[in-house]
Amino acid sequence: MKSISTSQAAPDRSRDISQPLERLSADERLKAGSDQLRGTISLSLVDRITGAVADSDAKLLKFHGIYQQDDRDLRDERRRQKLEPAYQFMIRVRMPGGVCTAEQWRKLDELARAHGGDSLRITTRGTIQFHWVLKEALRETLQGLHEVLLDTISACGDDARGVVCSVNPAVSGIHAQVYALAKQASDHAVPRLRAYHEIWYGEERIAGSEPEEPFYGRTYLPRKFKIGFVIPPSNDIDVYAQDLGFIAIVENGRLAGFNVAIGGGMGNTDRDPKTWPRLADVIGFVRADQVIAACDAVMGVQRDHGDRRDRAHARFKYTIDDHGLDWIKGEIERRLGGALEPPRAFAFTSNGDTPGWQQDETGHWHATLLIPSGRVVNRPGGAWLDGLREIARVHTGTLRLTTNQNLVLSGIAPQDRPAIERLLGEYGLLALQHATALRRGAISCVALPTCGLAMAESERYLPTLLDRLEPILERHGLSQEPITLRISGCPNGCSRPYIAEIALTGRAIGRYNLYLGGGFHGERVGRLYLENVREAEILAALDEVLGHYARDRHAGEHFGDFTIRAGYVTPVLDGPDFNTPNERRAPRQASEEVHHVAFCP
Amino acid sequence: MVNVPTSSRPALGDAQWTHVQALADTLNNDQLSWLSGYFAGVARGRQPDGAQAPAPAAAEAPPAQGTASGARPIVVLYGTETGNSAAVAQDLAARLGERGHAVTLRDMADCKPAHLREAQDLLCIASTYGDGDPPQPAVGFFEFLEGRKAPRFDGVRYAVLALGDSTYERFCAAGRRLDERLAGLGAQALLPRVDCDVDFEESAAAWIQALLPKLAPVAATAAVVQAVAQPEAAPAGYDKRNPFPARVLDNLVLTGRDSSKEVRHLELSLEGSGLRYEPGDAIGLRPRNAPEVVHALLGQLGLSENAGVALKGRHLTLGEAFASELDIVNVTPRFLEHWGRLSASAELEQLALPDRAAERAAFAQANHVIDVIRRLPAKGLDAQAVAQALRPLQPRLYSIASSQAAVSDEVHLTVSALRYDLYGQARAGVASGYLAAHAGPDAEIGVYIQSAPHFRLPAGDVPIIMIGAGTGVAPYRAFMQEREVQGATGRAWLFFGERQFRTDFLYQLEWQDWLKSGVLDHMDVAFSRDASNGAGKAYVWHRLRERAREIYGWLEEGAHVYVCGDAARMAVDVHRTLSEIIVEQGGRDEEGAHDYLRGLQDAHRYQRDVY
Question: A48 to chain B: which residues are within 8 Å by CB?
Fold first, then answer.
C-alpha cells in the first residue's frame, strides 16, 4: 500500500457521534438506552392485550431482523370494528450472498407453512422474507431457523444489513471465492447481538466486563448500511446502489481483488431537495485479504461521521456528499493504514439475471427460475411452493436467491438434471422463461398490504401494469427488447427503481412518479419525467417514448440511453442533480392510439 | 283433615293435639285461616319464655266478621334476575296494601332467616334460569331454605307463582322446588302452585286474583306496604308493555374477518324517551320474526297471510301475528299439545304421555315449529287454531354496554348473532337474526329498560374484578365508561375470554385506551381457540388461576367481583376457581371458601349476570 498523500482538514462534527446524546435524534437516544437492543422486547412478546409490541421495541426489533407490520387492507375495517390493526411481523433472514442449502430451504418452507401464510418472498437483496407472522409465532420461527443455522441478525436496523453477492452460475469457481468473502464479511460486520440469543433462544445473559459491541458501541450506525459483492460483467446486485460495493476483478481466470465503491443508496423523500438517490463512486482497489479491513474502515467512517441528528440525512451517501468524497476516501485510507490502489478495469453489460439452464466450468448445471416479485406461493396453475419443496427433497446442490428476486437451483450434477427438469415442468416453474423481456426483468417491492411505508400498490399491481404495457411493446416490436422496469410503492426504493430505465414510485393509491433514463446496467440514475400521475398518463407517455425508441434507436442502444439522447430527460449527473427539474427537448408527438391502448384488456 | 307428621309438631302434647284436631274439624277454611293468625298474634304478644303477656292488639280486638286475616303478617318474596318476578311481586304487594294488609315486599337476595320468621303468609314469586336454577341473586336463599338450617313453617300459609320458559327441560323448577320445600317444612298451600311460561302476565294476574280472596280483606285500615328492598322503579312512560321505538344509530360487526362468530355492536337513540339506565342494567328489545321464516311457515301451513286472527282481543292478520306477535320458532309444550290435536299425530300423542318428559324436551330442542309442521302436517287448518298453538313472541334482554354518563341519550348493546343449520337449512336466532338483518341505521326497535339492581358498581374508590366471556363483556364497557366519567379512583381488573385473539377481541381498542389512561389497571385475556395455547384450550378461569395470589389480595382489600356471560360453563368454572383460590391463598378448607364466597354474595360483592 502507498502512503497517504492528502492532508485531512478538520471535519464538521456538529451532527455526528461526538455530540452528546441529547443533541442527537430520538432514535439515537433509544438505541443508547436499549441495553444493547434488549429494550422491553421480552415483555412485549407476552403482552396478550395486543398483537403488537411497544413502539420502542418495534424499532429495536429491526436489529433482530423483524419488522412490525399490519394488514393494511384491513386497517380501516378493523378500526371501525374497534379492533386494533391486524398486526403481524415480517421476518427477514440473514442469508449472505443469497445461498442456502436444500435442507435450509425445506426448513424455510416448513416455517412458511406453519407461520408465514404459505408464502416465501425472495427480496431485492437476495434473501427470504416471511410475512404474516404473528407475535406469538416469532420465537418459534427464529428457533426453527436456528435449527438449520440461519438467523435474522441485523437483517434490518442501523447496522450492516444482509451482504449480497452476484450469482453468476457460469463462473462457479470465482463465485465460490467471492461468496465465501461475502459470508465472512456478513459474519464479521453484523452486531454480536447477545440480546438476540437471550430473547429468541432463551440463552442466559452472561455478565462480563467486555463491551458487548466492540465495533458498534451503544448507538450502532446512524442508519442502515448495505454491502455487496459483484462479479462483472453482470451487475445483477446493482453494486452502485450499495453503501459499500466490492467489484471482483478477475485477471487470467483468477480473483485478483476488488474495486471498492462507496456511497450508493436509493432512498429519497418526495419533494425534499435535501434527499436524493446516489450511485456509488469507485475509489480504489483492494486485495481479497483486505476486504474485511476495508469493511471496518468504511463502516467506521460512517459510524463516526454519519449524521445522527436527522435520520433522513443519515445514510452514508450524505456523509460523503457532506464531507466530500476526497476527505472520506482519505479517512478510509487513514484507517486502513495506507492508500488504496487505483481501481482496475472492468465492464458491466447488464443488471439482470439470465433465465434457464447454464453449465459452469465444472460441468454442473444451474437453473435460473424467474419468480415474479420473488413471491413463492401456491397459485392455481403454479404450485411453486410445493414444487420447490419437492425439488429441495432431491436437490443436492444449493439454492441461490438473486437480488432480482429470482432463484437459481445451483450445482446440479448432469445425471441429476432430468429429475429436476421433470419437477420444474410438473410444477410449472419454468412458466416465465419465455415471457416478454420486460416481464422477465421487472422488479417490484412488496408494498401493500403488508409494508407500512407503501403509498401505492407495487407487487400486486405489477402484473396488471405489465399486461397493459405488453400490447404497447408488441405494437412497437419491442417484446423481446431487454428494458428494465421497476416499481416501488414509496420513494424509499426497495426495488432500486432509480436505476431502472423505466421506474415508478408510489405517491398515492393509483398514482406514481414516472422516471426515465436510468442506466441499463445500473450505471445511471433516472430523471423524474412525470410526477404524481395515473396509469392512463403513464401508459400514454410510455407509448409515445417507446414508439419513438422503436423507430429511431441506434443499433444496440438501450432504452435508458435513448430517452436521454432523444431529449425526453436530461441525465442525472450526481446526487443533488436528481432534484433538478427535467427539461424535455424531444418534440411532442401525436399519440392518437393512446386511449385505445390504455384500456385494452 | 290434614295429616301432619308428628315430627313437624312443635312440642304439642297429645292431649293438646287432640283438642286442636277436634276444633279444626268443626271449622271452615276461612275460620281456620283466621285462627292461625290469631294464635300467631297471641304468640307474638307473649314473652319468649312463654310467660303470659298482655294480648296483642290484634288478638284483643278480633275482627267483627271473624274472617279477616289482618293479623297475619304477609311477606311477598320474590327471586328475580331480569325483573319479571319483581314486577309481579310489586303488583301483588300493592294490591294487598290496597286491601289493608300488612305486607312486606322482600327480594330473596336480601332475605335473612329472621325475615322468614316474621311471615305468617308467605307469597313467593320465583323465576327459573338455565338448567332449573333459581335466579342468581336468590341462590343463597335457596341454599338456606333447602339446607339443614331451614326453619319449620308450621302454621305458615304459602303460595308459589313460578316463572319460567317452557322450552327448557326443567321448566319452572325453581318455583317447584320452593313449593315442595315449603310444604315439606310444614307450610300449608293457600292454593296450588301456578307455573307460567314466558308470557306470564295473564297467568300471574289470574294467580293474584285467585290468591286475594284467600287472604280476606281488612276493611278500611291504612295500607301498610313496607318495601324493604323495593326494586328500582321502572322508568316512567315506556316499559315492557309499551316499549319505546328507539332509532338505530349504528349497527356494526365487531368480530373481524374469518371469525367463527358474528358479534354486533348496536347503538340506539333514546332521545325523547326519558328512559334512564344505570351501568349493569339490561335493555329489553322487541324483535320481529324474519320475513322469510314467516313466509315459509305460512306456505307450509297453506294459510294466507291475510287470514284474520284474534289475539288477546286484538284482531289482526295472521301475517302480522306471525311477524311480530307470536313465537313461530320455538317448540313449546303448548305447541306440541295443540299440534298433536290438529295433526292427530300418533308420534305427538306418544310424546304427550306423562312419562315421556325427557323425549318431549329433546324433541322440542331438536325442532323448530316449521320442522314439526313439515314432518307432521295437519289438514283443514284455520288460522286461529294455529295462532292459539303458539305462545307470544317474547322480548329479549341484553346487558347494556354503555353508561349514560358517557353516551347520554344513547344505549349500546352487544349482540352475538346466533346462526346454525338445522335439517340442512340455515337458521338464525330470532332476536339476533332480526338485529343483524333488519336493524340498519334509522330502523326503529321497541325497547324498554330492565333494571338490574344486583349488578351494580360499588363506590368509585372500591376495586372491582370483572370476569366475562363473549358478549358478557358488555356491562364492563358500561362500568368503564361510568368510572372514566366519574374519575373513579378504584382499581379495575378485567378478565375476558373469547375464541380468537385476532378476530374476537370485542372492543379491543377501547380496553387498550382504558389501560393506557389507567381507568383499567389490569386485563387478562384467554382465547380458547388460538394456536398459541398449545395443546389445550385457555379459558378465563385459567387466567384467574395464574393470578391467584393477586386476586385473593384484591378480595381481601374489599374488591367487588362480577361475572357475566355463559351460565352453563363459564360461571361454574369461575366459581369453582374462585373457591379454589380462596382455599389455596386463604388457607381455608372447602367449606370455609364456600362461606367466604357466600359472605361476598351477601355483601353484594360477588354479583353475577349469567345466562
Answer: 501, 524-525
CATH fold for the domain made of B464-610: Rossmann fold (3.40.50)
Can you name the CATH fold of B248-278+400-450?
A: Elongation Factor Tu (Ef-tu); domain 3 (2.40.30)
Average pLDDT over residues B166-190: 90
Q: Which pLDDT band holds residue B32 (cuts at 50, 70, 90)?
A: low
What phi-psi label fits residue B258: left (phi over 0), alpha (psi between -120 and 50 degrees) or beta? left
A589 touches chain B (CB under 8 A): no
CB contact under 8 A, B523 and A49: yes
On whether the CB atoms of residues B169 and B366 are closer than 8 A, the answer is no
Residues on chain A touching B523 (C-beta within 8 angstroms): 49
**Rounded to a whole number, what is the distance in Å from the CA of B535 to chain A's nearest CA?**
15
Which residues lie closer than 8 Å to A9 by C-beta, 6 or more apart?
A: A327
The answer to whether A84 contacts B509, with C-beta atoms less than 8 Å apart, is yes
Helix (H, G, I), strand (E, B) or coil at B175: helix
Q: Quote the DSSP letter at residue A408.
A: E
Q: Which of A451, A468, A496, A527 is catalytic?
A: A451
Query: Does B6 touch chain A if contact means CB atoms closer than 8 Å?
Result: no
Q: Regarding predicted confidence, which is higher, B51 or B277? A: B277
Q: Do B511 and A49 touch (CB under 8 A)?
A: yes
Mean local confidence (pLDDT), A509-526: 96
Q: Distance (Å, rounded) from C-alpha B82 to C-alpha B5?
A: 39
User: What's chain A's average pLDDT?
Assistant: 94
Task: Name the closest residue on chain B to residue A81, using Cα atoms.
Answer: B254
Confidence bin at A549 (pLDDT 50/70/90) = very high
A78/B contact by beta carbon, under 8 A: yes
> Which chain A residue shows the shortest CA-CA distance from B252?
A81
Q: Cα separation of A502 and A519, whole Å?
A: 10
Distance from CA of B443 to the nearest CA of A (A): 20
Alpha helices in A312-416 (DSSP H): 316-323, 325-336, 384-394
Residue B228: predicted pLDDT:
47
- The residue ranges of every structural domain in chain B are 25-50+61-214, 248-278+400-450, 291-388, 464-610
* pLDDT for residue A233 is more than 90: yes
Which CATH number fits the domain B25-50+61-214, given the four candidates 1.20.1560.10, 1.20.272.10, 3.40.50.360, 3.40.50.300?
3.40.50.360
Question: Which of B257, B503, B508 is the closest to A82 by Cβ?
Answer: B508
DSSP, res A341: B
Interface A:B, Cβ pairs < 8 A: 49
B489 min Cα distance to partner chain A (Å): 22
> Which ipTM value was assigned to this complex?
0.90
Q: Is A83 on the interface with B (CB under 8 A)?
A: yes
B64-75 per-residue burial string, b: 16 or more CB within 10 A, e: under 16: eeeebbbbbbbb
Give the C-alpha distances (Å, rounded to integers) separating B231 from B86, B93, B133, B235, B453: 7, 12, 21, 12, 7
Q: Interhelix angle for A316-323 vs A325-336, to 10°?
A: 110
Would you say residue B462 has pLDDT above 70? Answer: yes
| Four-way CATH pick for B291-388: 3.20.20.70, 2.60.40.10, 1.20.990.10, 3.40.50.300 | 1.20.990.10
**Interface contact flag, A81 B515, Cβ < 8 Å:** no
> A224 vs A30, A62, A185, A317, A495, CA distance in Å?
16, 10, 16, 11, 16
Domains B25-50+61-214 and B291-388 share a fold: no
pLDDT tens string A261-280? 999 999 998 888 999 999 99
Q: What is the spatial distance between Cα B97 and Cα B222, in angstroms, rounded to a whole number? A: 8
Chain center to CA of B443: 29
CA distance B364 to B331: 5
